[in-house]
User: Fold this.
Amino acid sequence: MLEIVVPGKQEYWDEINRVFVYTDDKDVTLRLEHSLISISKWESKWCQPFIDSKKTDEQLLDYIKCMTLNTNVDPSVYDRLSVENYKDINAYIQAPMTASTVKDISNPRKTNERVTSELIYYWMIANNIPVEFEKWHINRLIMLIRICSAKNEPPKKMSRHEIFAQNKALNAARRAKLHSKG
Assistant:
């Protein structure tokens, strides 16, 4: 979860009236969560996949609203988001939120499957991941799904070259241990 403080006192340009406007509101602390729940809310409104899609400024602002855990937030608070707030939000969204890594195995059957919240829920069900994990940071959840998928795959068969190399190494180790030439 990310907490940001949206400044109350601000100065901004009103393009309609062509004047500077000064606000003297109180600072507001927003609690944000980049999770599968937030993505589901956003996708249900915009009817397009959130992951790997181009988004307008309006759509990005709406996603911040979907991420917000606070209740009854005055809509004008989102208009007061500072450049620093946006940087913090972007850094939070991009953060891996895990120390785990999974070796990428090149898949010759790459698909153009669009990753949507429903597909991620399917992956969770297929890997027996409890639905409570939908509140996790999405990058951490996707890493868990990748780990589960990798661990559930049958072991990859070794190529002839790999078998020969393994046998050669075993034979060399045995010869060294037994002080033998062959």
Summary: The chain has a mean pLDDT of 91. Helices lie at 36-46, 57-67, 76-79, 83-94, 117-126, 138-152, 160-178. Residues 160-178 form the longest helix (19 residues).
